[in-house]
Write a structure and sequence with these properties.
Elements lengths: L20 E7 L6 H10 L5 H14 L1 E8 H18 L4 E6 L2
Antiparallel strand pairs: 1-2, 1-3
Helix pairs in contact: 1-2
Amino acid sequence: MPKEQTSIRERERTNLKEPRLYKVIFHNDDFTTMEFVVKILMTVFHKEEAEAQELMMQVHTNGRATAGIYTLDMAMTKTNKSMKMARDEGFPLRLTYEPCD
């Protein structure tokens, strides 16, 4: 008796959702130069010079500013790369990332 083949496929239900996003935040300090902060914003965060200057001034006047919103992996990578560049230059620049609301 030959086996019958059926064309029924089972559906698998997957609940996909967008990845959580994180803000990368620059914090003000009294030692990191404004020029170096602009350099980081331009090289690591790919900001144009005018936007980098504006963000640097926000950090300077408000004590902190958000440089961008990214997935967790990108936020971690940009934070770590920026802080490594700062340490290599002898600056105590501090960046953090936190979940967006």
